[in-house]
């Protein structure tokens, strides 16, 4: 089991396709592992409403999302 990254949300599990989860009356958003989204590489293409975006993991471990 993986610990949820610190985002001010309660700790729990996350995966590459986690659905929204209700914990103690609070609905948590789905959590996705960025490295799984990029297939272990530095980038992933993400499409929303026909628009393409590029998710990039920097060398320092930060995420950048660009159109």
What does this entry look like structurally?
This protein is mostly beta strands. It folds into 2 domains: 32 residues, no CATH class; 33 residues. It is built from 1 helix and 5 strands. Strands 3-4-5 form a 3-stranded antiparallel beta sheet. A two-stranded antiparallel ribbon has the order 1-2. The radius of gyration is 13 Å and the shape is extended.
How would you concisely characterize the structure shown here?
By secondary structure, the chain is mostly beta strands. 6% of the residues lie in helices and 34% in strands. The protein has 1 helix and 5 strands; from the N terminus they run ββαβββ.
Q: State the end-to-end distance.
A: 33 Å
How many strands?
A: 5
Overall spatial form: extended
| Spatial order of the strands forming the largest sheet | 3-4-5
Radius of gyration: 13 Å
Q: Helix/strand/pairing class, anyone?
A: mainly beta
Q: What count of domains describes the coordinates? A: 2
Overall average pLDDT: 80
Model regions low in confidence, pLDDT < 50 over at least 5 residues: 1-14
| Share of residues in strands | 25-35%
Order of helices and strands: EEHEEE
Q: Can you summarize the main beta sheet?
A: 3 strands, antiparallel
How many helix segments?
A: 1
